[in-house]
What does this fold into?
Amino acid sequence: MTTTSDQSVSPTSTSAAVTAGAHATEIARKGLSNQRGGSATVDQQRAATVIGAALEGIRAAIRDHKVTYEEFDAFKQWLIAVSDTGEWPLFLDVYLEFEVEKVAAATQQGSVGTILGPFWLDGQAQLDSPATLPMRDDEPGTPMILAGQVTATDGTPLAGAKVDIWHTDSDGWYSGFAAKPPAGNLRGVVRCDDQGRFEIHTRKPAPYTIPLDGPTGQMTQAAGWSPWRPAHIHLLVTAPGHRTLTSQLFFTGDPYLGNDVASADKPELTLDPQPTGNASPGFEGEVRSDRDFVLEPE
Ligand code: MBD
Ligand code: FE
It folds into this structure.
């Protein structure tokens, strides 16, 4: 790094917020996640309606709460910091995506889903069920099996189904977005068997806090809101000719259920893993959950 670029780097450039934000921004730019693409056709009428309503919401907040120049200036600086830290994907997915997901869910048949979030990655390990996710030799955490079957809404087993899965380690860190876990850790795309069945061996994830050293976390704490998400497993369930299911699974008894900073937990998505009784070295305390997924034909 040159002296010039050193001087232009902000003091937070090596923070957890920036480590996560830069990569999430890069992924969002590609627009690949969930096969939705990154653009929408511009219809002047709709632009005026939707953008107009969004701006009016902010203007109403200014009027109703007599926002001062000092506060307006702080807002400007906060927005600039969101860009500087690459936190737009984080901020948008934490505070707005759940409303977009409700709009999408209103027309989707099959299993209940929830938001994608900012931490999906392309190019992960392709595995055949039964599969063990890539992990460190000494990967900490409770060994966990997630198993089930993917069917269509008419009950047909979907032989070509894949379960793209990613979650934090037992300390709450995502590979690819935090310094500690190695690339690809606890991520994979699992191909189901000829009956659409899958069995995935992994470790139970931990609750997650959004970075507290970036503008999204600072805004959250300034308002006195909890920055935590309950522990969760992200899933994209796909099958040729079927609408992709974007989902997450949570755990009974998690202290953050019902108080998810991303408002993405749903009662239908809670797992209650049970002991398997596996006594093999390293698998003591292993738990298992069974969960089927139903996809809507396209
Ligand atoms: C996450 O892990 C997540 O899933 C979402 C939606 C937002 C922030 C962090
Ligand atoms: Fe997540």
